[in-house]
């Protein structure tokens, strides 16, 4: 499995609705609200046989009121 972190910027006033919709899809390991430039951050485990970009696009990025995302790939854990 590949672990990635995805940050979300939401339409103003829609963060809780976006969080609920993301959580309901049952593909994130953890989901947090954050301060700063991004509204939410999710930890997602991508199956090893899946393309990361396609997997996220097909399963996550179609949630209404997501304005922008930033995906951070991870590598070796220490």
TrEMBL record:
<dbReference type="Pfam" id="PF01037">
    <property type="entry name" value="AsnC_trans_reg"/>
</dbReference>
<feature type="domain" description="Transcription regulator AsnC/Lrp ligand binding">
    <location>
        <begin position="6"/>
        <end position="76"/>
    </location>
</feature>
<protein>
    <submittedName>
        <fullName>AsnC family transcriptional regulator</fullName>
    </submittedName>
</protein>
<dbReference type="InterPro" id="IPR019887">
    <property type="entry name" value="Tscrpt_reg_AsnC/Lrp_C"/>
</dbReference>
<dbReference type="InterPro" id="IPR011008">
    <property type="entry name" value="Dimeric_a/b-barrel"/>
</dbReference>
